[in-house]
Amino acid sequence: MAIFFISNICHTYIVLIETQMRMEYQTLRFEQDGDVGTIFINRPKAMNALNSAFFDEMEAFLTEIDKGNVNISVLIITGEGKAFAAGADISEMVNMTQKQGETFSQKGQQVFNHFEKLETPVIAAINGFALGGGLELAMACDFRFASSKAKFGQPEVNLGLIPGYAGTQRLPRLVGLAEALYMLTTAEMIDSPEALRIGLIQKIYEPEELLDKVKETAQTIAAKGPKAVKKVKAVTRFGVRNDFMEGSEKESSEFGSLFENEGAEGMRAFLEKRKPNW
User: Fold this and answer.
1) Which of 28, 130, 165, 170 could form a disulfide with 108 if both were Cys (CB 3.0 to 4.6 A apart)?
2) Would you name the residues annotated as active-site residues?
3) Helix, strand, or coil here: 219?
4) Is 277 part of any domain?
C-alpha cells in the first residue's frame, strides 16, 4: 500500500512538471492529479477579470485537451484568490469601438462554446464572485458547485451594457425566463442559497472544503466508463439544442455503439461481481 501511495505521488508530480513545461500561460495555472485536471484563473489582483489574453490562453488550453495532449477525464475550473471571475476586464473594453466590442463578444462566446463541445465534463468550482463574464463562464460549464461565500450576478446594465458571452441565452435555459430577466434587468447580486434555489448551482460547500469536494465528485465521474461519460455529455447537450425525437434517435445510436466494447465489459463486470477494466 505504501509503495502504491508513493508511486501515485510521484506520478502526479511528474505530470505536473510535464504539463508546466508544455504550457506557459500568464492568466491560467493548471494542475493535474491522475484523471482530474484543475485550471485556475490566475489574475487575483484583477479579481480574475477576463481579458483577451485569458480567452486566447483558454482556447489554446482547451485545444490541447481536444488533441489529447492533456489526458484527463474531468476538468475543474476555479479562480485564484477571492473571486471566481468578477467579469470582463472593463479597462480593456472602455475604449473599444462598436466593431471591436462585437468582436470581443464573439471571441468570448467562441471560447465558452468550446466548454460545451469539449468531450470532457467540466465542473465550475465557484470560490467567490462570479459576476458578468465570470457567471457566463460558470454557466458554460456542465454543472456548478459553489462556496457558501460566493456571489452571483449579471451587472452589465449598470454599465449601460448587456451580457456579451451568451449570458442572455444560457441564464434563462438554466433558471427559467422570469428568474433570468429579473437578474439581467435589476443587476441584483445573489448569494449561494438563492443560486441553489433557482437552479443556477447544484451544491454549496464551505470555502475551505469546496475544491476538495469538487475533486471528489470529479474522481467519482472519472471512475465511470470513459466512453459512456463522454457520450452522455454529448447526447444530453445535443438533445437540449434539438427536438425530443432527434435527441432520442441519437441516444439509441450512441447506446448501441457501446455494446461491443466498453458497455460489454461493464455488464460482464457487473454480472461477475468485479470492477470493470475500462
Assistant:
1) 165
2) 136, 156
3) helix
4) no
- DSSP secondary structure letter of residue 38: E
Please identify which residue in the block is written with the cell numbers 455488464.
Answer: 267
Q: Containing domain of residue 249, as a range?
A: 226-271
Query: What is the number of structural domains in the chain?
Result: 2
pLDDT of residue 23: 60
Instruction: Count each helix (H run) and each strand (E run) in the chain, helices first.
Output: 12, 10
Contacts of 224 (CB under 8 A, 6+ apart): none
pTM, whole model, 2 decimals?
0.89
- Give the mean pLDDT of 146-174: 98
Identify the CATH number of the domain in which residue 113 sits: 3.90.226.10
For residue 268, the model assigns a pLDDT of: 95
Q: Which residues of 117-144 are buried (b: 16+ CB within 10 A; e: fewer)?
A: ebebbbbbbbbbbbbbbbbbbbbbbbeb
Quote the pLDDT of residue 143. Answer: 97
C-alpha cell at 256: 448501441
Query: Where are the extended beta strands (E) located within the chain?
Result: 28-33, 36-41, 74-79, 83-85, 122-126, 129-131, 143-147, 151-153, 190-191, 203-205
Q: Which of 222, 241, 261 is the C-terminal boundary of a domain?
A: 222
For the chain, the distance separating the N- and C-terminal CA atoms, rounded to the nearest angstrom, is: 22
* Same structural domain, 256 and 215: no
Distance CA 30, CA 40 (A): 6
Q: Is the dihedral of CA 265, 271, 276, 277 positive or negative?
A: negative
pLDDT recorded at residue 195: 98
Neighbouring residues of 64: CB distance < 8 A, sequence distance ≥ 6? 22, 23, 70
